[in-house]
Protein 1
Amino acid sequence: MKHLSRIYTLLIFIFLYAPIAVMILISFNSSASTYVFSGFSLQWYKMLFHDADSMAALRNTLILAVLSSVIATIIGTLAAIGLNSYRNKYLKSGIMLITNIPMMNPDIVTGVSMMLMFAFVGGLVGSRSSLGFGTLLIAHITFNIPYVILSVQPKIRQMDKHLSEAAMDLGCTPFQTFLKVELPSIMPGVLSGLITAFTLSLDDFVISYFTIGSSFETLPIHIYTMTKKTVRPDMFALSTIIFIAVFVLLVLSNILKVDDDEKKRRAIKKQLKKAEKTAKKAVQ
């Protein structure tokens, strides 16, 4: 059974990462062939950085991803804190159900519905061009918020409620308590939600396709327009760079999580040692 499980795990990793490995290999190919490796070369990376359209699309994508992830993280963190303060469990469950719908809803349904909403609002205000960077930013913030809430809520549940009460007893205002006590305690969840929102925004195509308009172009849309003719090898280089960047972000996220768990273990050990010392003194 052990050998079968190892083979099964190996096959899963091959199916998941073999296409990415091939893409990375082809991005260093000296020729434009996608099946014959003629030799190692960085020419496609050089061509990529000299392509004004691709660089503009990459810049737009990064601006959109940073803005949407930061705004979604702020709104999602505050929403998670607000939901945690509800005492009515039925109300809390109902709100969480509504919040989780965007994650379960197909992207194409979300994209079409948001496009119709933006077109309707644009018609009401008399706007000729109802789609653009603003609508795209709102769409990305909307589908990122549930993921931030999902990342922050477990940290809020793990937080010691007596810490905020003690801070207020010592003279802190609610806002100071949030900044100095609550926020540092849930910061790993906040950072995890921020990284998740950034990667989702960086990668999104379907919702962006329906809400982007013609005045703004992101990298996934730019690559899609190229597939109608042919995908140039410099896009393989760009995809490789994006993969490495996302991989680094995920590694950093896991490191933060491990560090947070390690701090909690050390804190628990200290508390146990203090309890043992107190018990020994009591016995003596």
Protein 2
Amino acid sequence: MNGNELTTKEKVLRMLEKENDYVSGQEICDSLSLSRTAVWKHIKTLKEEGYTIDSVNNRGYRLVNSPDIMDEKHIREHLHTRWLAQNIIYLPETDSSNIQAKHLGEYGDKNGTVVVTDKQTAGRGRRGREWISPSGNCYYSVLLYPDVRVDRVSMITLIAAMAVARAIREKEGLETMIKWPNDVVVNGKKVCGILTESSTDLEYIQYVVVGIGINCNQKEFDKEINNMATSISIEKGKDVKRARLLAGFFDCFEEYYDIFMETEDMSKLSDTYNKLLINRGREVKIIEKENERILKAVGINDMGGLIVENEVGKQEIIISGEVSVRGLYGYV
């Protein structure tokens, strides 16, 4: 059987997923050329795997709920990529998906390989900060071998933020924005963190690992960050099917990454990014070492730098430093 061909059990599941109402056992039998006993056995197996399925005499079967499983099989059910995530490594628990992906990069694993985990014991954010990684969220890393100069790597982080924002919007129906450079924001609070790491040789890249953590089904946060962070579940009032969201991200990221590699900059993506930029047209505090300035954000340029201007309209490009947005994250 080819790797993309559905098993009979998966075909039964697809029939149930397509209908909001009951599907008769006879309809399943006729469609898949199965006996009643075979259908019952497949339904039983699906229930054992965590699917909630109602059975009613003379009406058939109805899928009530699907398990929130984030392994390779469940991601592939929703995946439409050509090269990204064709190799998926699922680890129920690990130290860090980035650490694991970097190991794979050292051994030259396949471009577009992804490492996915339910829980990290040593997750890290920017500047070596600890990234708390409770179960129920999405933690994953993408391994890439971009043939670009070292100074282009930071733009891949912006692309990842665009893909997360779009996947959440399309799959979960929430309005998403981006706080430059890569914080994805829902209702004024951070819902995603991104850490991009690379191995370089002089001016060129050996490999890049993009690590992403999306707050999916987390119900509460420590009081220190409660006013800054949220989750999709909190904002929607219902839990997220993480495999579907992940597949949505991979679809979006592949599209944006391919466009980026055509030009090796953000020239064909900056308009899309700027529409998502929550800083745009707002005052931002630029923090560079011990120096702080208040300027207005205009958007990003083709290299992913933040264009800012002062009160008389003089513009400059911010490449490094930390940007705080007035009205967000406790900055008033």
Protein 3
Amino acid sequence: MRLWNVCLVILRRIVDALRDLAPIIIVIAFFQLVVLQQPFPNLGRVAVGLVCVIAGLTLFIQGLESGLFPLGEAIAQAFARKGSATALLAFAFCLGFGTTVAEPALIAVAAEAAEVAAEAGAIADDDEVRAAYAFELRMVVAVSVGTAIVLGVLRILKGWPIHRLIIGGYVLVTAMTAFAPAEIIGVAYDSGGVTTSTITVPLVTALGVGLATSIRGRNPMVDGFGLIAFASLTPMIFVLAYGMVN
């Protein structure tokens, strides 16, 4: 009976994955066959890739619900019971830093930024210099996300209104944009988007919800969410500041 229930859950996940992917599949098929009027190149490989995507999405969603979400909530509740704000804030920073520093999208953006900076003459056109520039950029973004999670946790603990912090942050970004070097502005804005990875988002969201659930007087729907907004905002501030200083 248990095996049957597991099979039903997996089947339901596969159906959900197909439903989620259906719009993009329909759009691609329509434009390829109707608008471009061309057959799919390497149809066999495309079909195999689609099956892999469906399987990966199915396992990923199941893993989130079975492991990452409960883990994040359990850690938040354990810290709340422990009553150590210092330990909680240290964990929040390490979580944000650790999940960001190895983010593939950030590594790619930092490497591309180093290449463009070298071509523009902003840094020396040398492998070591480019690698150092990319590494520094990754560290700046990782520290910024760690700081963002700390700020988000403090907001939950103190009950600060999120809209004031977000509005103030974007006002600061706008003001800094006027003074930052033109070549760093686009990189700074992009860094805000590449930090919210598939691991960071569920863990951080679960941390916020679990913490808000554990603290008396906090509403998980009102106070538990918003950490990801800080994780998208602070990298822009930190990278703009990095460009202004260097």
Protein 4
Amino acid sequence: MQKLLTDMHTHSTFSHDGRDDLKTMLNCAVQKGIAFYGVSEHFDFDYDYSKMPQELRTKLYNTDEEEYFHAARHIQEAYEGVINVAIGAEFGYSDDEKVQGRYVSTYEKYRPDFVINSVHGVGGVDFAYAVITGDKTTVYKSYLQLVRRSLDAPYPYDIVGHIGYVARYVPFEDRAFSLGEFGEELDDILKTIVQKGKILEVNSSNKNLETRTIPCKEIIQRYYELGGRKVSFGSDAHFQERILEKRDEVVEMLQEIGFTEITVPFRGEHIKIPL
């Protein structure tokens, strides 16, 4: 049986950090034989640009909602019958009710095919640009508590994005999220994902971490032990060369744990694809 390839976390130049335009990304996906391709442009309403370094303020911008969804829907139609394209969004979670309200409005107006719910930072600053202070226990527990609160977001979402994102950027020698240190917080998160019927993302963009994925295998294994069966693969590609990156390694790892399927969200439906 032919394997159906999926990659549900990708970005193009509609996002501030994307390097290739959407048609270039899709043409590459077609060449690689992808069956289900997710476009998940950044919606960073949680950003407080006044807190960003001055040199970044002109480089960072939020995805233009109208331009993106209008253009992406036309592109989606153009590729119909060639590749299954899901026009989605990655919402950066914030506790701020006004920010949450903006996500609700965006969802209701544009109805993305799927949503990735991600925690990228605290206090309006992405961890990628923040000066991270404090010890590992304090920083990681604060992050995990925010991830847990994000699961109760008032807007619809399908995928819980890259749990462990902060580890890409911390200055600690040991950057691992271990169950021994953070088992209570992680169990609460994983149990809630299972209870809510959400999808756990396995993200292959590890930014030179020792683990192959975010979250790491130990956490994915724990999710499986707790009854979790819905996982998605995301390369988090921001340019064409990274599409599907490490997918074979990820599939091998998931099969070792016991998973038999990848879950693809599309307009409220969770499609099961055999590994």
